[in-house]
Specification:
Residues 36-63 are annotated as: Disordered. By secondary structure, the protein is mainly α. It contains 1 helix and no strands. It is 56% helix and 0% strand.
């Protein structure tokens, strides 16, 4: 298949512009997610019940 060089160059330039636009969009979305994450208040997770409490009263007496 023979393609005219100017047409091929136009196609390559269009694809290059599309790839740059996708990259910029990804960066904008990443920054927006980071900003939302930074704005949210941090809350402590509820205990899962697997780990023993760290209180001295919960310790087993030494023998």
């Amino acid at each position: 298949m023979l393609v005219h060089p100017e047409l091929m160059l136009t196609m390559v330039n269009d694809r290059h512009r599309e790839m740059i636009a996708e990259s910029e969009k990804a960066q904008i979305l990443k920054r927006a997610r980071e900003a939302l994450r930074a704005r949210r208040p941090r809350t402590a997770r509820p205990p899962t019940g697997r780990v023993a409490p760290c209180e001295p009263s919960a310790a087993v007496p030494a023998r």
